[in-house]
TrEMBL record:
<keyword id="KW-1133">Transmembrane helix</keyword>
<dbReference type="GO" id="GO:0015095">
    <property type="term" value="F:magnesium ion transmembrane transporter activity"/>
</dbReference>
<keyword id="KW-0813">Transport</keyword>
<feature type="transmembrane region" description="Helical">
    <location>
        <begin position="338"/>
        <end position="361"/>
    </location>
</feature>
<dbReference type="Pfam" id="PF22099">
    <property type="entry name" value="MRS2-like"/>
</dbReference>
<feature type="region of interest" description="Disordered">
    <location>
        <begin position="1"/>
        <end position="26"/>
    </location>
</feature>
<keyword id="KW-0472">Membrane</keyword>
<keyword id="KW-0406">Ion transport</keyword>
<keyword id="KW-0999">Mitochondrion inner membrane</keyword>
<keyword id="KW-0496">Mitochondrion</keyword>
<dbReference type="InterPro" id="IPR039204">
    <property type="entry name" value="MRS2-like"/>
</dbReference>
<keyword id="KW-0460">Magnesium</keyword>
<protein>
    <recommendedName>
        <fullName>Magnesium transporter</fullName>
    </recommendedName>
</protein>
<keyword id="KW-0812">Transmembrane</keyword>
<feature type="transmembrane region" description="Helical">
    <location>
        <begin position="367"/>
        <end position="387"/>
    </location>
</feature>
<dbReference type="GO" id="GO:0045016">
    <property type="term" value="P:mitochondrial magnesium ion transmembrane transport"/>
</dbReference>
<keyword id="KW-0809">Transit peptide</keyword>
Length: 398
């Protein structure tokens, strides 16, 4: 028998075009080709560029702020006030290091005096000066005058220093005040004016927002403006949270001083300058002063917290009502679709008899009545069954 010794090329062996051999592990499998997702790049590339730009801006600003914190030669704009609250020098410029040495502070104590943000309120007490930093109000108090720092404040911030400047001369007038306030030395009257301006600003913001919230809560019962009321309540919530946070920070600053007897005794700068330093336990006037503002701040914070709770409960109630209405609309749509289904099936049957073909009913006198009755009964039956099933699903409890 003739045998062929020449190997016959197998169609399954590797060819120049890349055909796989049957013994190759990948034979019979489709090659997966990954194509670039153009839409992914189109959506993500702008976001990546925006994120990279933001990170670069953060880096540059961080370097600038870091250099300004380290550099005590940063120039600051200030205003000097006299014993009667009048402006002695409206615009003086100096470095942190120079102003600190002149007013009895270390340059590091003024490192955060030119923060762009409002910062955390605090009182720094030194033997010859008191540094007050209350949001946008930052000043140095000595027995012979006040140094007010002029900061670049944005319009969106409440300018506490404007309230302080407007109310200061009235408080320092010789005939103003009675009782304990009239007996306080100059530096404590400045502290009183600063704390009063902060409290007045917080209380004014709280009262105005409370009125707006109450008006919005009254409008929340109107169905035609429920979405607008919901947006207003969300805005009010943000502002209330900000007020509560600021009041809590201010309260913490007062508590920190109240817990430090030595600082309260040191705040009598005039007596110390006259050679009559107070003992650690001798600070009753300062304690009464700080406690009064602490209670006022606590009342504002608690009131804002309670109003915030009412607002959040109202928002949750509105969301629940909207969810119920949305569910009612969905149920109505389902009922309507069930009724349409019940009407469509008999209509299809009636359409079959309406075709121009012989159906052996042409000669019957009762065919029309029977067909209409069957269609109506079929519509009612299918609709009732569908509505029964829908009602059964609605009664399920998960």
């Amino acid at each position: 028998m003739y045998k062929c010794t020449t190997p016959i090329p197998s169609p399954f062996r590797h060819s120049p075009h890349g055909t796989a051999h049957p013994e190759h592990p990948s034979y019979g499998r489709r090659e997966i080709v990954t194509l670039p997702n153009k839409s992914h790049h189109v959506i993500q590339e702008p976001d990546m560029k925006k994120e990279a730009s933001f990170n670069q801006n953060v880096f540059n600003l961080s370097l600038a702020l870091s250099k300004s914190r380290i550099n005590d030669a940063t120039e600051l704009r200030c205003m000097v006030l006299g014993l009667d609250g009048s402006v002695k020098e409206s615009d003086i410029r100096g470095t942190r290091d120079g102003l600190g040495k002149e007013w009895g502070l270390d340059g590091r104590d003024l490192r955060n005096v030119d923060l762009v943000s409002e910062g955390i309120p605090h009182l720094l007490v030194r033997p010859s000066v008191i540094f007050i930093s209350m949001f946008t109000l930052r000043l140095l108090v000595r027995p012979h005058g006040v140094l007010l720092f002029l900061l670049p404040i944005e319009d969106c911030h409440v300018k506490v220093q404007d309230v302080f400047m407007t109310d200061l001369q009235r408080r320092l007038h010789p005939g103003s005040g009675s009782g304990l306030l009239a007996k306080l030395p100059f530096e404590l009257r400045i502290v009183d004016a600063a704390l009063a301006s902060v409290i007045a600003t917080l209380e004014a913001e709280h009262v105005l927002i409370r009125r707006e919230v109450e008006d919005s809560l009254q409008d929340s019962t109107r169905e035609d403006v429920v979405y607008a009321v919901l947006r207003d309540l969300q805005d009010h919530r943000k502002r209330l949270v900000a007020i509560q946070q600021r009041a809590s920070q201010f309260r913490s600053a007062l508590r920190e001083i109240l817990e430090n007897d030595e600082d309260m005794a040191t705040m009598f700068l005039t007596d110390r300058q006259a050679g009559r330093p107070h003992e650690v336990e001798d600070h009753l006037e300062v304690e009464y002063l700080l406690e009064a503002y602490y209670k006022n701040t606590d009342a504002i914070a608690e009131s804002a917290n309670a109003l915030l709770g009412d607002l959040e409960r109202t928002v949750e109630t509105i969301h629940s009502i909207l969810d119920v209405r949305r569910n009612q609309i969905m149920v109505f749509e389902a009922q309507l679709e069930i009724c349409m289904l019940g009407f469509a099936v008999p209509t299809f049957v009636a359409g079959l008899f309406g075709m121009n073909v012989a159906n052996f009913f042409e000669e019957s006198t009762s065919a029309f009545v029977v067909l209409v009755a069957v269609c109506v009964m079929g519509t009612v039956t299918i609709a009732k069954y569908g509505l029964w099933k829908l009602d059964k699903f609605r009664k399920l409890r998960f």
